[in-house]
Amino acid sequence: MSDTEKPKPHYYGHRQRLRERFAHSGSDALADYELLELLLFRIIPRRDVKALAKSLIENFGGLAEVMGAPPERLAEMPGMSAASALELKIFHAASLRMLRQGVMNRPVISSWSAILDYCRVALAQETREQFRVFFLDRKNRLMADEVQSKGTVSHTSVYPREVLRRALELGASAVILVHNHPSGDPTPSKGDIEMTKEVMIAAQALNITVHDHIIVGREQITSLKALGLM
Fold first, then answer.
1. For helices 11-25 and 32-43, what crossing angle results, to 10°?
2. Which residues share a beta bridge with 107?
3. How much is the average pLDDT of 60-89?
4. From CA 152, how far away is CA 171, in angstroms rounded?
5. Are 132 and 93 in the same domain?
6. Is the per-residue pLDDT at 185 higher than 60?
7. What is the pLDDT of residues 26-42, one digit of tens each?
8. Paired strand residues for 175
9. Which one is predicted more confidently, 186 or 64?
C-alpha cells in the first residue's frame, strides 16, 4: 500500500457481503434493518449505517413505518438529516407509485389485497387525517384515486356533494371511500358511520354505488362493509 493510499473503512466489506446476499438470495434473505441498510448505503455513503438502520426500525416499528414516516420525524433521528430523510421519502414515493400502478385499471374484486396494501403504504403513517376516494368504472376497475381533503390530527371535512360531483366528472359508476386514523385505531367513529350513510344516500339518487369505506390505522385496516355498518 502506498503512502497516499488509505485503508478502506471496516464497513466496506460488510456492505459488499450484504449486496452479495441480496444478489444471490433476494430480499427474503435479509432482515428489515439490512434491507434498510442497503438504501442508506446510497444515501449516506461515507458512514457505517448499520446502527442507524436498527435505530430507525426500533423507533418507528418496522420498515414500512420508517418509509412512511413524515420527513420531519425522520430528520429528528440521530444520524439522519433533512437531506437523508428526503432521499428515503423518494424511495417511498417510488414504491407507492408502483403499488398504485399495480391496482389501476384492474377490477377491485381481483386486486382487493393489492388495494389494501396500497392503502396501508399510502396512509398508515400519515400524521394528519386524509380522505381519499377510489373511483371505479362500470366494470369495477379502478380509474382514479384522489385525495379529497386533508385535516387536522383527528378530523377532516368530507362533503358528499364534492365526492359525487367528481364521480360524475370522471364518469365513475362506483366509489370506495378511504381515510386514515392518525391515532392508530381504525375503529369507525360515529361520525365516520354517519358520513358514509350521507354519501350513500346522495350516491343512490345518482345511481352511483358506494362499495366500501376503508379506515386505515397504524397496524390494521377496517372495512365498514365487513362490519355490517353500510
1. 120
2. 141
3. 91
4. 31
5. no
6. yes
7. 888 889 999 999 999 98
8. 135, 210
9. 186
